[in-house]
Amino acid sequence: PLGPASSLPQSFLLKCLEQVRKVQADGAALQERLCTTHKLCHPEELMLLGHALGIPQPSLSSCSSQALQLTGCLHQLHSGLFLYQGLLKALAGISPELAPTLDVLQLDVTDFAINIWQQMEDLGMAPAVQPTQATMPTFTSAFQRRAGGTLVASNLRSFLEVAHRALRHFAKP
Amino acid sequence: ECGHISLPASTVRLGDSITASCTISPNCSHLGSEAQILWKLGTELGPGERQRRLADGSQESTITLPPLQHPRALLSCCLRWENTLQILDQAELWAGYPPAAPHNLSCLMNLTTNSLICQWEPGPNNHLPTNFTLKSFKSRGNCQTQEDSVLNCVPQDGESRCSIPRKHLQLYQSMGIWVQAENALGTGKSPQLCLVPMDVVKLEPPTLWAPAPSPEVAPPQPGCLLLHWELWKPSLYIDQKCELRHQPQLGEASWTLVGPLLSQTLQYELCGLLPSTAYTLQMRCIRWPLPGRWSNWSPSLILTTAQQ
Amino acid sequence: ECGHISLPASTVRLGDSITASCTISPNCSHLGSEAQILWKLGTELGPGERQRRLADGSQESTITLPPLQHPRALLSCCLRWENTLQILDQAELWAGYPPAAPHNLSCLMNLTTNSLICQWEPGPNNHLPTNFTLKSFKSRGNCQTQEDSVLNCVPQDGESRCSIPRKHLQLYQSMGIWVQAENALGTGKSPQLCLVPMDVVKLEPPTLWAPAPSPEVAPPQPGCLLLHWELWKPSLYIDQKCELRHQPQLGEASWTLVGPLLSQTLQYELCGLLPSTAYTLQMRCIRWPLPGRWSNWSPSLILTTAQQ
Q1: Which residues of chain A have a CB within 8 Å of the CB of C198?
Q2: What is the ipTM, given to two decimal places?
Q3: Over 50: is that where the pLDDT of A3 sits?
């Protein structure tokens, strides 16, 4: 693996940290609206449904403090964001009240994924081929989209916490 | 599908009760097939009246809900799993009333916007999303016959008024107009109006002023005032009559009405007034002899009569 | 067709001249075929240079107009008939200049409307109907490569600004932007900007206030003031630095600048001030260490220092 974190440009890392905070804020807004508008406030009440729907959760093993590895972490960060891009798209039609919040979240996740992909390309670390989107769960009712939204937002929050720690480590001078 | 709530309807009358059923498919409940289905309405949690196993192995619970007292409630179908409460489906319940018939429908022809503007009273809140539509058709005489298709005018969100643009109007023909309110529980119709747009034309007030003192014009007699007015320009083609009202600026004086006044007068001398007293003057006009609606009173003109 | 004017172009440069021809078909001129065709430009009336009879019996007159001095002129092709002047065709002539290149193009990312707002100077009036379009493309680095199609942003009528909505933006990637002006005589292009939307984010100012006096908080020393500020909520995810300026309310005192101040501070004691003096305080913030644009100064806060 590459040397210490300093091989990543500082402005790239600062931008990524800002994007993590932006997506976290968007995700929190979605969770808050799902709770106030549809009383879906606790993802743990939807685990059973989540299993049945088959909502995938991307791995960030190379970003965890025990096995922190720069290239692997960036790859996982990008493919995780790419997966969340697809999941958020599959939630379209969640509800008129939530649509604007969902759109902003999806746009910011997409921006973040592109920022990482382009940086990997600039550093010659990008995988040869852009990832293709996994098959997405099918949400057959408005309730399932809202329940799916609650689960995806909650999973995304944990995903971003791990990403934030790793990026802060890389950013340390 | 993991769990599915089915309801005869998602909107009922306030105070009515409703029977719901929830079916949980075998592949969803990792538990033994005997898991108890629980219902959550708002914050109330409890089992249904009856739970049975269906031929395909899924479990179905049925519940008759208490009379609904709130316009909106969330009904959840749940299971206990690893001592957490798992929500498997959720349905929104709406409760309210069919819409009352809108009333006090009235319309005015506005020559500035060149549109017929109608407004109405929506009636009491029925607690349900309700769409109002202003419906009209071209007709003759007293609107017993419908000359062409019904035009729908949809008001801006939440507004109880709608304006029908000129291109949909025949200004000198009768038209039937009513308001229809619709929600999930039914429809309410206002009484039908039959009107001719030009007969409900509401003019803008005339412009009132005192002619500038000039050699050709003799100053007004004591106790008199010289007035001049001009009709609102876009209504010059309409025959009108006007009314003047005046009130001395003295404590609680009331208005005195002068009229009808011909709309085409260059100069008017108003007499019988108190000398050296300030008067507030206003004027309004109406289409006449053909029917119309009085304009608002014009902005006040304040003139003072000459000394004795 | 009775009479027909043909022109090489209906728009020419101011000061250029243009040659027009008018053909009058035989079935139109009830006169003898030798009727003289007359031209009317604005108020000038006169014959063409040459008039000839065509094979099909129609008459054709040709005229070279004087250099056009007005942005718009009406050219009529006429005949004398029963001693009236008959207009048989009319053409509008426009005269002006190709559009100058728009300049001073600048953009700001607005986090309230979530859009990139660009404005420019249109340049001198070219007397012709001119369309301005803000053109942009997604790119990388210094915008040498074009990553996808060009986006057109068409401003509201007559406005020299346009706003690109969030869904067409990648906030952290470079984009090339320029303004194109187009009229009948040509096109003008502004120099191209290369920017990253988030690097031109302009924040709303922070909120500045004095903490309410309370037992836990020691009152400020003489010549000091206790301050508290909060960043604009939608920008909390952005690392920022801030600047404070203060000015005693004494005659022509100038501003004193204090900064940089960390954006996350609960309490700040500003000292070195004159005792028992009213001070006007304002604050602004900027994205930092990443690039950004200073917010406006916050509304003034007026505080008075304690007596000595």
Answers
A1: 15, 18
A2: 0.81
A3: no
